[in-house]
Amino acid sequence: MLEKIKEVVNEINAFGNKKPIKIISHFDTDGITSAAIFSRALQRAGIKFSLEITKNLTPEFLEKLPEEKNLIFLDLASNSLDYLAKKKTSVIILDHHEISQNIPENVTMINPQLFGEENCSSAAICYLFAKTLSEKNIDLANLAVIGMVGDQMEKNLTKTYDSILKDSETQIRRGLLLYPATRPLDKVLEYSSGMYIPEVTGSFQGVISLLREAGIEKTSSGFKSLSELTEEEMSRLITSIVLKKSSQSDSPNIVGNIFLTKFFNKIEDVREISALINACSRMGFSQSALGFCLGNKNSKKEAERIYTRYRQNISSALKYVTEAEKIIGKNYTIINARDKIKDTIIGTVASIMSFSPLYPKGTIIIGMAYDQDKIKISARISGESEKNVREILHRAVIPISGEVGGHPAAAGALIPKEKESVFLNELRSILDVEIVKPRSTNV
Ligand code: C5P
Questions:
Q1: Which atom of ligand 1 approaches the CA of 378 most closely?
Q2: What is the CATH number of the domain that holds 391?
Q3: Which residues of 316-353 are buried (b: 16+ CB within 10 A; e: fewer)?
Q4: Residue with the nearest Cα to atom 19 of ligand 1?
Q5: Is 197 among the domain residues?
Q6: Which of 254, 285, 316 is the last residue of a domain?
Q7: Which of 89, 144, 152, 279 could serve as 127's disulfide partner, Cβ 3.0–4.6 Å?
Q8: Is 4 helix (H, G, I), strand (E, B) or coil?
């Protein structure tokens, strides 16, 4: 892959400033950090460009792309090659998603799947590009670490990541996967939505008694943060939480690597930065997230305000889910939020529902929310299961001209709004017969 990256560096240097460059990047954390790395590297090299962040590549979006510009796609487009073949201009793609079509002549692609290499996030590919362009870009490595965590690739630290983590001087410590690891433990335990601990999450008294059980004392300046705990304190805390969670039939792994990196001159938990970037984009403020990644102080203030609003949005969406009428079947729950929940957060809401002890293991959760003239659908499964929600969505969505993607345990789709009731009827009849069906890999 490094050889191909060198070719792309030469290709972009050859573009010079003769024909303008347009960069298009995805709106999630990996896409935003990719855009920040790539654009900073071009700017330092004196190469001019324009940049657009997008939620997805629709046929209408692709149609409008200017042919008088060289097009560079980051963290998307591996699935849009047939469209791009029609463009009378050079196209460069740095992406890691599945390639489902032939690579056309006008397209140069860097995607680890082409080189038989282990998957890595797009921000990692952009960082390798930036470092090949100039060694000075080594200061962009922490953005690549944020992209890695954003796409949940930190569980498998490959050789590529070893070197990026070294360049970024990220500190890694084994511990409880509760974030941010840099804030006082009592607050993080009480307000965490990512890890449900019976009798502790949401309960101040529960938090205090858990910390007492674990022998973690309050100091004169309050409780320590996770990153400040000694090895022994961390181990006692994990044991106390495991004991509390043992009543849950199917707890996900609560221990893993905590990544701490310098951002705006302060040590931060990479998971928290990733969540903040993701939140900005989902609230429609990708530019603030990008400015934040590029070190702009005003963008940082704005991004923090948006992150607070996002958390409030999620909590009202969860309240809505509790109170709203749901379609409940034997092994599934469908929540059709229409315009009550943003299309960009319905996936997060479905994920939180799938972690909740309210839904027994194997329950299929389907969330639906309006997105202009379309409906965004997010499907998840509670706990480990053999069921394949991508296949289920595929069967209901393809006959009504929708698009589907994702994985067996977490998939998404987009359908025309006028097909709402057709989709619901078809989906329910598929789910009603889908009691215990093994995973299939043919979709
Ligand atoms: O959008 P949502 O969060 O529900 O998506 C779940 C998973 O499916 C994500 O990994 C997303 O990238 C993927 N997906 C996809 N193509 C779509 C919709 C979702 O690959 N059209």
A1: 4
A2: 3.10.310.40
A3: ebbeebeeeeeeebebbbbbbbeeebbbbbbbbbbbbb
A4: 412
A5: yes
A6: 316
A7: 144
A8: helix
Q: Is residue 31 part of a domain?
A: yes
The answer to the question of residue 265 being in a domain is yes
Q: What is the pLDDT of residues 206-237, one digit of tens each?
A: 999 999 999 999 999 999 999 999 999 999 99
Separation of 347 CA from ligand 1 center, angstroms? 8
Distance 79 CA to ligand 1 centre (A): 13
Report yes or no on 440 lying in a domain: no
Of residues 294, 278, 441, the one with CA closest to residue 344: 278
Residue 47: closest CA among 73, 15, 70, 71: 15
Atom 18 of ligand 1, nearest CA residue: 412
Q: How far apart are CA 415 and CA 376, in angstroms?
A: 7
Write down the mean pLDDT value for the chain.
Answer: 92
Ligand 1 surroundings by CB, under 6 angstroms: 347, 378, 403-406, 410-414
- Burial pattern 20-45, b for ≥16 Cβ within 10 A else e, equals ebbbbbbbbbbbbbbbbbbbbbbeee
Among 39-53, 250-264, 286-300, 323-337, the least confident range: 250-264
- Indicate whether 157 and 211 sit together in one domain: no
Verify that 312 and 328 share a domain, yes or no. no
Cα 241 to averaged position of ligand 1 atoms, centre (Å)? 32
pLDDT digits (tens, 9 = 90+) for 268-279: 999 999 999 999
Do 434 and 331 meet the contact criterion of CB atoms below 8 Å apart?
yes
Same domain, 192 and 311: yes
Give this prediction's pTM: 0.89
Residue whose CA is at the smallest distance from ligand 1 atom 8? 406
360 CA to centre of ligand 1 in angstroms: 23
Q: What does the CA dihedral 127, 128, 133, 136 come to, rounded to 10 degrees?
A: 60
DSSP 260: E
Do 153 and 181 share a domain, yes or no?
no
Per-residue pLDDT tens digits for 413-425: 999 999 999 999 9
Q: Which two tokens stand for residue 223?
A: 């409780």
Final residue of a domain: which of 117, 148, 164? 164
Range of the structural domain that residue 223 is part of? 172-316
Same domain, 135 and 14: yes
Position 247 scores a pLDDT of 59
- The dihedral built from the CA positions of residue 29, 31, 34 and 39, taken in this order, carries a sign that is negative
